[in-house]
Amino acid sequence: AKEPVRVLVTGAAGQIGYALVPMIARGVMLGPDQPVILHMLDIPPAAEALNGVKMELVDAASPLLKGVVATTDVVEACTGVNIAVMVGGFPRKEGMERKDVMSKNVSIYKSQASALEQHAAPNCKVLVVANPANTNALILKEFAPSIPAKNITALTRLDHNRALGQISERLNVQVCDVKNVIIWGNHSSTQYPDVNHATVKTPSGEKPVRELVKDDAWLNGEFITTVQQRGAAIIKARKLSSALSAASSACDHIRDWVLGTPEGTWVSMGVYSDGSYNVPAGVIYSFPVTCKNGEWTIVQGLAIDDLSRKKLDITGAELCEEKELAYSCLS
Ligand code: NAX
Questions:
Q1: Which residues are catalytic?
Q2: What was the pLDDT predicted at 94?
Q3: Are residues 186 and 192 in contact, defined by beta-carbon separation less than 8 angstroms?
Q4: What domains, with CATH codes, occur in the chain?
Q5: How much distance in Å is there from the Cα of 91 to the middle of ligand 1?
């Protein structure tokens, strides 16, 4: 039998946490043969609710779940974890300045970076979900210098999956037959959902999405804005932000990172930019990546047309601006 993997979920008493922890306990993240020990962290005002989630996990009696640590102590939460999914953060409230929200999250991610650096298992893989996800991940990276940069990522898989979903609905094909969309840049409304290299499996082979949709105006317009604004549309409908889809895509992100992407398929991940595709280096930027043996690699050599170039630059500029804002909160 495999040794259990310790998975940390921060903000575990929140909405996404409530959807995510049962998925992890049921093997959705790491596979049906991988035992797990869940570490759940939240802040003291949520301690009682967190304990309620722990009670429900016990009641769910998942055979893969070998233990649950529910705590408000950051060190206890981080100790020995192999995977850390950072969902906890400070949300933007009505009337709050961007800088104030950034400042709160910078201080959270700075201190949690140190705790992970000192107490997590060696080679711990980190996924930041909490917004501003890319910049929170960057702060985590900066304040955990001994964790390799390649181990720190941000979630754009939800946006990636949203793009797959939109194409699948438009063409009335199975979502599993659509692949290789790309989310470039920031997990924000400047992200660029790109279908220029995306394909659909058809009875007569793989066909480019553009060739099948036959409507560039839609692909360059409404498709992009629908994916960019999908989070807002969910809030409008549910009066709550996306949770089950966020949790599900966090599982997809970790699963593909750990177990690998299928041959010929890439996914989108926010990773520490090396300046590939002439986007800014030194920010957490979402790229198309393939994963093998627990490591991601940016897909190289894709053609970037003029429209795409502009959009890659806009979202890159926003990330540089966020980085500056985050740094200004440190001083
Ligand atoms: P909730 O407000 O329901 O839950 C957040 C939880 O974090 C709360 O229980 C809170 O007590 C806890 N928390 C706050 N500060 C903490 C700290 N210092 N340490 C540990 N826990 C802390 O929000 P939820 O809907 O679950 O969303 C969580 C985060 O995900 C938000 O920042 C949200 O903006 C972000 N999202 C990111 C997405 C992505 O694709 N990257 C999509 C979904 C989601 O909007």
A1: 187
A2: 81
A3: no
A4: 5-154 (3.40.50.720), 157-322 (3.90.110.10)
A5: 7
